[in-house]
């Protein structure tokens, strides 16, 4: 299975998800289940996608006190997803608690899900970050700060934009994951995303994987569009 393109299944229910996935026939995908779908369907959507052989990023972006996050992660570890996440802004202690929960909840003989932390959302511009969060440093500095904190807490990587991926790799090493949403082909509508790049550029800047949703899910030909995104990624060098 190609793990470099994570397909965001931002649908309202299971019926929509499986109608959409039918277009991909038997292809095994790396899919992302976010809040919209998980809050409607609960754990059964994870079991159903697993049964079809897909890898799963459960993108719930946990951010709460350490004890609550630990308990939640203990439960999520039992679902069998491959990747989960938190907000780095929850702090080092919260991220360490997330890992403890995952380790405690992972069934014997199974690998614990990888865990990454959101640094700054790709829908946030530097200006918004500075004005709304009162973070008075450049975007790259804030993202690198959160990425270093995430590594100190023992997590496996971060969610960031293309524009910080290279510095993260230089500072924190090749094996620390940078999962990058905010991905569009040249003529795509960027919608609510602010820090946006093509798959080829994300790869050339050192992204470990990209996340793509609406440009594929809302396309009149999703399979063709998925292939275009993959070709853009595969055509670039890291
Ligand atoms: O910083 C972040 C973190 C998560 N996301 C998620 O990725 C997809 C992107 O969807 P598009 O339709 O390709 O914009 C979406 O599920 C977000 O929740 C992100 O965009 N940025």
UniProtKB/TrEMBL annotation:
Transmembrane segments: none annotated. SMART domains: OMPdecase. Pathway: Pyrimidine metabolism; UMP biosynthesis via de novo pathway; UMP from orotate: step 2/2. Keywords: Decarboxylase, Lyase, Pyrimidine biosynthesis. The active site is at 59 (for ompdecase activity), 61 (proton donor), 61 (for ompdecase activity), 64 (for ompdecase activity). It is an enzyme of class 4 (lyase). Gene3D superfamilies: Aldolase class I. Its EC number is 4.1.1.23. It comes from the Bacteria. InterPro entries: Aldolase_TIM, OMPdecase, OMPdecase_AS, OMPdecase_bac, OMPdeCOase_dom, RibuloseP-bd_barrel. One of its GO terms (molecular function) is orotidine-5'-phosphate decarboxylase activity. It catalyses: orotidine 5'-phosphate + H(+) = UMP + CO2. One of its GO terms (biological process) is 'de novo' UMP biosynthetic process. Substrate binds at residues 10, 32, 59-68, 122, 184, 193, 213-214. NCBIfam families: PRK00230.1, pyrF. Belongs to the OMP decarboxylase family. Type 1 subfamily. This is Orotidine 5'-phosphate decarboxylase. The lineage of its organism: Bacteria, Bacillati, Bacillota, Bacilli, Bacillales. The gene is pyrF.
